[in-house]
Each structure stands twice: as structure tokens, then as C-alpha cells.
Amino acid sequence: METIKGIVMPIMTPFREDGELDESMGCEIADFLIDGGVHALFLLGSFGQGPAMRTEQRKRFAEVIVEHTRGRVPIVLHVGTADVFSTVDLGLHARSLGCEAIAVVGPYYYSDHTEFEITEHYREVGSRVGMPLMVYHNPPYSGYDITPPMMLRLREQVPQIFGMKYSADSLDGALSYVNQMPADFAIYGLASGLMPGALYGIRGTIVPTMISFPELAASLWRALEEGKLEEALALQKKVNEIRKTMRDLRRQYGEAVQCEAVRLRGFKVKRFPRYATRPLSPEDREVLRAAMQTVGIPTAG
User: Fold this and answer.
1) Which residues fall within 8 angstroms of residue 196, CB to CB, at 6 or more apart?
2) CA–CA distance, 8 with 189 (Å, rounded to integer)
3) Is the N end or the C end of the chain the one with fewer CB atoms within 10 Å?
4) DSSP summary character for residue 101
5) What are 43's strand-pairing partners?
6) What gap in Å lies between CA 105 and CA 135, rounded to an integer?
7) What is the spatial distance between Cα 228 and Cα 106, in angstroms, rounded to a whole number?
8) Any residues with CB less than 8 A from the CB of 194 and at least 6 apart, and which?
9) Measured between alpha carbons, how far is 255 from 61 in angstroms, rounded to an integer?
């Protein structure tokens, strides 16, 4: 799994107005991300709308993107659902497509799951699908925490697990896993703290807010790999600046902010997310545009 590192970019799933897939737009966005220098794609997670889609939609979008990208970058395909049978079905489909790895959020909705139940869910997925598995750790969405000691026990009992997506943006929180887990356990997270997180062993980041500026994100990782720490710090400050504006707008508009940012990069996304969101006002759209331009992100008219 050494190839899954750096900027592992969650790709949005664009929809038509009727909530069906806009496959051609999905391919355009995938090309944009790869051309922008991302190192891998992360499909159908929370940002990718997997849990808000029908099973056949999830499978079809995965097929389209895997075929279109043709091995240009590794693919991590999120297959998590509320039940193990659906998760295994999606996992076997991911294996048939040749994806490098699957990601699995813990079984959600039933937030009173015991550790035994969570472990058995991952154990069955791992053994039946039989491919590298990333734990998608997202307590607000799953409804429970997988603490560092529990993650260690989980990894010991499910050998297919190679790492985790850490959805919080806390350096201290991420380091609690770095310090607990063995050295070969990959941790992905920290948009605002990738520098210095990478210096402590964070393998990369999987953060939706970077989808509208893959070039900036890739430049940050390249500077970190090359040991150009002053450059990396300057780039990290730019990432944090644009993310602050997006975070402020998100309180009012939700995922519509990410959609508008991608539109400002020139993509005519008809609908995202799949559920209804409040569109940005013309004034706030210009606030977003100005923030992007301030850190050097070009925008369309």
C-alpha cells in the first residue's frame, strides 16, 4: 500500500437534476484532479455521496471512474454501509474492478454497536472480500469512536486493515494514533496540519475541501517530500486560508460550498450533493471567488 500516499483526493459524485449520475462530468473532474497532481482517488465516501446513493448507482460510478482513469492513479473505493452483507457485496465489486483498496466506515445508524459487533463487521468484510482495507474513522457519521487502543485491537484481529482515514482535523488526535499503532499502519488526515503532520509520519490526506485546488495540495505534498519546509509552511498557510473561508460559508450552505468552488474552476456541475442544499447568494459566491484568487487559485467567469 506504499503507493497510496500523499494527496488521496475524495472525488465528488456529480448528479443530474433528477438525482441520477452525471457520468461525463465525473470523468471530467477525475481528469482535472489527476492532471492537478493528486496521488490517488477516494471514491464514494461521505463527500462522494455513497451512503446517499442506490447500490447500483454506487457500482456504476465506480465502474465509470475506474475505467476512465485506466490505472493512472490508485483507487480507494469506499464500500461502507449499515450492514455487512451490502458492504461485502460492494467490496467484492470493488475487487472485480481491480481497485487497489477499499475503505469501510463502521456500521452506522446503530450507534450502540459494541466493540465485538464492530470488530466482527470488519472481520467478515476483510475475510470475504480479501483485499487491503482502510478503516474510515468518522465518529460523527458512524455514531461512535474507535479509540487508538480499540484501533490497535481491531488491526490485530483483521489483518486486511492497512490504515485509517482520520476524519477529524486535530494534530493531537492524529498523533494519538501514530503513537499507538505500529509503524506500517498508514494514517491519512489533517488538511490544516499536513505540515507538520507528515513530519510525524502521517501518510497523506483525504480531505474533500481540496478538490477545487488539487494543484495547491499536490505542491504542498511535493515540498514536504523534498524537505523544503519553508515552502511547505507557506503553502500550508494558503490551504488554511482558503479552508477558513469555506468553513465559514459551510455553516450556512453545507456541501453547496464545495460544489460552487468546483463550478468556479469551470465545471458545470448540475447537482451536488444529491440532497437539497441552499445555493450560495451572489455576494457569498464572490466571497468564495475572492478567497480562491487570493491564494492563487484561478477561477472561471
Assistant:
1) 171
2) 10
3) C
4) E
5) 77
6) 6
7) 37
8) 202, 205, 220, 221, 224, 236, 239
9) 20
Query: By C-alpha distance, which of 25, 5, 79 is closest to 267?
Result: 25
For the chain, how are helix, strand and coil distributed in percent, rounded to 5? 50, 10, 35
**Confidence (pLDDT) at 183:** 93
Separation between Cα atoms, residue 283 and residue 7, nearest integer Å? 31
Alpha helices in 132-228 (DSSP H): 139-142, 148-157, 171-180, 194-197, 214-225
What is the per-residue pLDDT across 237-263, written as a single tens digit (0 to 9) for each?
Answer: 999 999 999 999 999 999 999 999 999
Task: Say yes or no to pLDDT of 1 above 90.
Answer: no
Note the Cα 85 to chain centre separation in Å: 23
Full set of structural domains in the chain with CATH: 6-211 (3.20.20.70)
| C-alpha cell at position 43 | 471514491
Sign, Cα dihedral of 86, 90, 91, 93: positive
Quick one: pLDDT at residue 2?
81
Helices and strands: H and E segment counts in the chain: 12, 8
Q: Measuring CA to CA, how many Å separate 239 from each of 209, 215, 295?
A: 9, 11, 8
Q: Which amino acid is at 111?
A: S
Give this prediction's pTM.
0.96
Q: Tell me how far apart the alpha carbons of residues 235 and 112 are, in angstroms, rounded to a whole number.
A: 41
SS3 for 72? coil
- For the chain, report the end-to-end CA distance as a whole number of angstroms: 40
Q: pLDDT per residue over 102-130, tens digit each? A: 999 999 999 999 999 999 999 999 999 99
At 188, which amino acid appears? Y
Q: How far apart are CA 50 and CA 223, in angstroms?
A: 32
If one counts every other C-beta atom within 10 angstroms of the C-beta of residue 140, the result is: 9
Residue (of 276, 223, 227) closest to 253 by Cα position: 276
Parallel, antiparallel, or unpaired for β 40-43 and 75-78? parallel
Q: Which residues contact 286 (CB under 8 A, 6 or more apart)?
A: none
